[in-house]
Amino acid sequence: MVALALELQRRGHQLVLFTVADAARRLAELPLELVTIGVDAFPLGSVDAAYAELGRLSGVAGLRYSVAYFRRELAMLHDQLPAAITAAGIQLLLVDQLSPAGAMVAEKLGIPFVTISNALPINREASVPPYFTGWLPSRAPWARWRNQLGNALLERLTISLWRDLQEQRRRWGLPSCRHKDQLQSPLLQLAQLPRAFDFPRQRLAGHFHYVGRLADPSGREPLLPDCLNFPWDRLDGRPLIYASLGTLQNGKPEIFEQIAAACIPLDAQLVISMGNPTAMPLDLPGEPLVVAYAPHQQLIARSALVITHAGLNTTLTALGCGVPLLAIPITNEQPGIAARVAYCGAGRMLPLRQLRVERLTAMAKDVLHNPVYRQNAHRLGREIEAAGGVGRAADLIEACL
User: Fold this and answer.
1) Strands (DSSP E) along 79-229, which ranges?
2) For range 185-197, the mean pLDDT
3) Residue 262 CB contacts under 8 Å (≥ 6 apart), including other chains
4) List of E strands, 111-263
5) What is the three-state SS of 274-302?
6) Stretch 124-134: mean pLDDT, rounded?
């Protein structure tokens, strides 16, 4: 969202970014107008604490925790966002797909809005496995039943969130929603992945567009800490393996331990990013280079393999650089992203419950030495570039204006 905001601002538009205190602190150095909301519900430090807790969870437990967090966020946005948007004189609202409150506020205020799918698109189709599963698509009749059962489980896990939404619509005098797709923009929907990386779909709206990775065209990473001082001189010339569990799923040191042990037999150098500014290097097997943060894109561009939790940012960065992946999904939409990596042939997927050092070593060797994975990663990299990124997204948004 920041990359998109900066691109639109470069084109002469006035941008206002509504956020909470923790995010405002991270964004303070950027040339964007910020409006901080939810100071009482989300005081400084609360989001970081929530992310730290999520980092210790996996599977359904992580999904339940995320739903509870979204309910708190939803209540705050319903309470404070209408007045903030009105005061700022907003004419068009850009809303993350996982923040339906923004869509409802736009509807209440009569403001056009655009849906931005920063994670996996959650647009539901019977032939597409639910985003929180690692299932691959299939045309077999049983697959539709499987998907239906998975969606039923998702409905059960998120029923409290849906009830909150419906109750707020009643209070605001808005018509009841019969299905969740009614909370997507009827004007424009943008997805941060190329079409070739998604499962086959038949029911997307005509105004749904795959635009590829929303990143600064210059390659800059505006949210990365400036004080990285990465020790480039310690890279020894061997093939590079970059491992990261992102900034949310970094509270599971046992996964880092198994990754380090698995890479010992490989003729490669392992760099591990902890994704945490307070993280101290762990006493890990072998001799991995461990840092709190890393220059994400620069390291991935030099890598022969990326080992990841299958966060979409890391995955799209690797594919954009033509680097294959070994995905170890932990929770939320990560299994769905990992399944797409495997489906597209750009890497391998290893479910967390199957994580063993020997299995991880075997998979890493396979991805490193089988050229098909890199060829497919390069193919998807070309697809990402052709999708247009923030430039095409900005073009489509301007067309709405």
Assistant:
1) 93-96, 113-117, 189-191, 208-210
2) 96
3) 357, 358, 360, 361, 364
4) 113-117, 189-191, 208-210, 240-244
5) CCCCCCCCCCCCCCCEEECCCCHHHHHHH
6) 94
**Selection from 113, 108, 43 nearest residue 82 by Cα:** 108
What's the Cα-to-Cα distance from 212 to each of 35, 160, 310, 382, rounded to whole Å?
28, 32, 16, 10
Cα 327 to Cα 78, 241, 395: the distances in Å are 36, 13, 33
Nearest alpha-carbon partner for 132 in 67, 38, 213: 67
Q: How do residues 340-356 score in pLDDT, each as one tens digit? A: 999 999 999 999 999 99
> Considering only the top CATH level, what class is 232-385?
alpha beta
Q: Which CATH number fits domain 2-218+387-400: 3.80.10.10, 3.40.50.2000, 3.40.50.720, 2.30.110.10?
A: 3.40.50.2000
Token reading at 151: 């969606």
Longest Cα–Cα distance of the chain, Å, equals: 64
Helices (H), 120-209: 141-157, 159-172
CA-nearest of 75, 68, 64, 66 to 157 is 64
Q: Which of 151, 182, 152, 144 is nearest to 166 (CA)?
A: 182
Map out the domains of the chain as residue ranges: 2-218+387-400, 232-385
**pLDDT score recorded for residue 227:** 44
Residue-wise burial string across 15-34, b where 16 or more C-beta atoms lie within 10 A, e elsewhere: bbbbbbbbbbbebeeeebee
The model's pLDDT over 1-53, given as tens digits with 9 standing for 90+, comes to 999 999 999 999 999 999 999 999 989 989 999 999 999 999 999 988 888 78
Q: Is the dihedral of CA 316, 386, 128, 103 positive or negative?
A: positive
Contacts of 89 (CB under 8 A, 6+ apart): none
Q: By three-state DSSP, how is residue 253 classified? A: helix
Same fold? 2-218+387-400, 232-385: yes
Is-above-0.90 flag for pTM?
yes
* DSSP code of residue 97: T
Residue type, 291: V
Please, how many CA atoms are within 13 Å of residue 398, restricted to the half-sphere of its CB? 16
Q: How does DSSP classify residue 331? A: B
User: What's the rounded Cα separation, in Å, for the pair 228 and 241?
Assistant: 19
